[in-house]
User: Fold these one by one.
Assistant:
Number 1:
Amino acid sequence: MDFIGGKLLQVVIAIAIFAAVIGIIMLVVDRAPKSVKDRVTVAGFLAPAAILMLVGLVYPAVRTSMLAFTDASGQGNGFDNFVWMFTQPEALATLRNTVIWTVLVPLLSTSFGLAYAVFIDKARGERVLKSLVFMPMAISFVGAGIIWKLVYDYRGPGIEQTGVINFIRAALGMDPKQFLLDAPENTLFLIIVMVWIQTGFAMVILSAAIKGVPVELIEAARLDGANAWQQFRNVTVPGIRGALVVVLTTITIATLKVFDIVRTMTAGNYDTSVVANEMYTQAFRAGEPGRGAALALILFLMVLPIVVYNARVLRKQREIH
């Protein structure tokens, strides 16, 4: 009870401090001279957000960048962490796996989502069919990892299989397979989990974009003798190009940061680690915060161009509309 009472007191104090800060800001803004009132108003309401960004975003980024050039004892070691990253076999395997994830997951998720959106468009039971594919999006990555770990579950030959896939293999007279242990294909079995989750996201966005393609254009193409594939390639795809870019870049960013699935299913063992998982392993398990920070810095540099490109595409779309 004392613990709960202490926590409640902290919550009340935090709310009181927040209310006091907002009250002070509004008081200052209200009493500011008319000549600078607009500027004071903007500065007053932007200041809390700016301070939070400095404390929660800018400072950790600077701190991580500095940490990337230190060794396990905190002493500066130049570019040793980056040399380790690009020379050691286990680190290179991590980078290789990340590239495989980044290439396959966006392409497969977007392709499956687009195909599904096209085939069920205006079909009977469209909402139900969409819900079935979108449902994995409601599951956390950890939950999805646990579910698929059970699907891939392995027991020795002659023992009743509880994993769905090995149960089917045994029923067909095949030997059970250790899907998560055998490299390099175990990385592909982990990628399937991410594709299973992201296909629903791609399907929803692309389905909405397809419905926005003008019917007049499709009818005109049909009157010109275009078949279904030609209508899709020459009318639908150009009409949803912006949505395709958004889906591809969004899934790519999510894939670069993937951690939970790998951590839950293999913990990065058996040559399945990716940058985000290795960052955690080095920083919190191996006692090498410098290497973890270097991996975080590389991950940031990999994500940054995609974010900038996505922002430019969205700005161009707003200018067009």
Note: The longest helix spans residues 89-120.
Number 2:
Amino acid sequence: MVTPTQMQAPPAVGPLPPLRTPVLETFALSNGLQVVVIPRHAAPIVSLTLMFRAGSDAEAPGLTGLASLTAEMLDEGAGDRSALDLAADLEQLGADLWLGAGRDGSQLNLQVPRKGFEPTLAIAADVLLRPRLGAADWERVQHDRLTALGQRRDQPEAVANIVADRVLYSDNHPYGQSSEGRESTVQRITLDDIARFHAAHWRCNQASLIVAGDVDPVALPAQLERAFGAWTGGPIPALALAGGARQPPRLVLVDRPDAPQSVIRLVAPGQPRLSPDRTALRMVNAILGGSFTSRLNFNLREQKGYTYGASSGFNFMRHAGAFSARASVFTDVTAASVTEFLNELRGIGERPITADELIKARATLLGRAAEALSTTGGLAATFGEISLYDLPLDEPGRFVAQMDQQDAASLQALAARHIDADRMGIVIVGNRSAIEPGLRALGLPAPELRDADGDPL
């Protein structure tokens, strides 16, 4: 822990180099699959991302966890290969294959040395188009997920996230549930559900393909056509979303009687992914809690010594957004930490943003953007996300231009409109008997009590 006496002034931010945005090529395969190619020949590596516009937001009510389990099952044997054969063949080629699903999308990621690129494409095509979906594999995957979900109750950070989502969204909204699902829903999911979700959503007309790295741009279209040209599209199922983010209860507690720390979340509805304010709000957040030198971290960590780190962030999602601020603090300073959180959340709209804060915010965000574009994996991930949200392909350059248009006064006015400390829901996972008296002394109402799954008690 850094104490106040150890603090040193951070170094001044020097001139920033311009963001080097990549040169792109785009084309479509014969089945309509849209392809973005980003040649990068600095190293003999190729990264590929297939992004699908269906994640847990496409799950039927009562089947939460289905999208991520579907992604997990696809490489449990495909085509002529068992799961072990598939892993051995990928290892032989030096390839890493990963599949997963989040709230707004599912994806396949592949990284491979250039010489193994085309044979690995054939494996990826098997995984996408010809997964085995075997009963024995499903039994194991389902058992492992149920075990992980049971263990999650012992992880206070995970519990705080689950409860915060439950109180911020309705139980019928997919954002109100963990993408990993709940034990009750995972037990309900069958292998037929997996097969149906795969057939409905892992379609070429729901996908975008990003290829970054040391590829031959002349040979690439034929290579991709051989691998994915037989893939077909299909009707896109309509999403039935019930509601969005709502005003959460003022105080929610999850009791952990012996906990030495309290995990704190302050949450409120935010902005959706395509909000015109998203760039400016990222700058506001970099000043508030989105960097090591932010106001929240400086106050709670550096000045007060309450925590090893405090942060905040906007989560810009397709159907609704959220704002949260967070920290794990020592039990005896839980109420004092909540006070400091609320002071800083009020202050971002009241205390003038300094020129130094504005420079650091821009430097932080520009540095992160540059880092994301510095590797083939980062390029594939960045443009996979751009395609997922139907953003323009020159989004990185637009982001920099939009940052340049912001000044301190406009950011402060924006913060005052979007961050309301008096309407934040406060979720705390901690020792109730030790922390509740102090919280009540702050004038907070009696807490709403929840269990580790976020269910009311």
Note: The chain has a mean pLDDT of 93.
Number 3:
Amino acid sequence: MMEPVQADDAGAMLRETADRLLAARLTPQVRARAAGGGWPDDLWAALDEAGLPAAILPEAAGGFGVPVADALSLLTVAGRHALPLPLADTMLAGLVLARAGIEVPAGPLAVAQGSEVRLDHAGRATGHAWGVPWGRHARSIVVLADAPGGPVLLALPQAALTIEPGADIAGDPSDAVRFEAVPSQAAPAPFGAAELRAAGAATRALMIAGALGAVSAMTVEYAGERRQFGRAIGQFQAVQQNLAVLAGQAAAAAAAADLAAEAVAAWAASPGPGLLPAVAAAKVRTGEAAGLAASIAHQIHGAIGFTQEHPLHHHTGRLRAWRDAFGREAEWAQVLGRHLIAAGPEGLWPAITAV
């Protein structure tokens, strides 16, 4: 198991550990099993044994006390490998449960963003949620319920849920869940649904940034190997121009994702609506980059990039899924726009520079 680490080295150690582990364990066979709907339990067990899902938790909650922004940087590695497992959702669920004072269950977790939940006087939850990432595999699902005293955070055990399987555009589980009179751990939530959605959007921005780095690298490599008319296609000016645009989009997405990670770290320490503008900017920027970069990468790869065996297929499929998850660019552009309008003429420039 991972030993406690110093803050300055935490992010680099996590990324290096995750990169080595996924390079060795996320084999084509494991990826094929996941694509067929199977749960890669060996790979999850390896992640768990390395302590990666718990890295973001404080030591009092069974984690390693890694600073939140450093722990979240782990998700860029998950994106780089197009990880077919709910590492991001487990980290986010653990973070909000720990902050609310609820015991964090072991195993994979999920966050239900679209949910309608009511509590009875005995504290039992009834409702449903949809589009729950990896819901069928999660040991507990975190939902937010309205209550007279404010939002309440709940951890619903999977055994008490009715699962209706679904899938996102990449083929990963995205399920509907129903529950009735379920006893659950509950605590007042120091945030609302909009902030929980923003935190989820930040995790997807980080994974998009990681995936774009991998897409850029594999496209440059392919352009140097594929030959037409007696020379590598990467020597043609038009291809070089597109590779430059692709690299620029990946770099811009990485910078925006870092912004989102810092915003989530500040929010975890002191919850408040200040999270929204930074995450909105990051989700808009990474989403735009994902669309443009995927298009360029497939143009350069040609038909081979669409085959199940090629890694580009897995990366761009998840780019599309993560772009959709927790809101696309149009939704977050409106959030950002409302924030800037509310700042007024005198506050506009400070609001822009603060983001």
Note: The CA atoms of residues 232 and 238 lie 12 Å apart.
Number 4:
Amino acid sequence: MNIILLLIPVAIGVVILACYLFIWAVKTDQFEDLDRQGSNILFDDDVKSGKDKPPQ
């Protein structure tokens, strides 16, 4: 029965932390344009620098 006295504050702390992280994510636009980030990997351009060329 004493464990409930420990688990209730821990559960309240987890809920407060989750709410804080959700509000932070919304304010920093983490949920904006979700489709673009998923398709960026398909259109990744290869950037070649001069170091990649073999010597002639």
Note: The two ends are 78 Å apart (CA to CA).
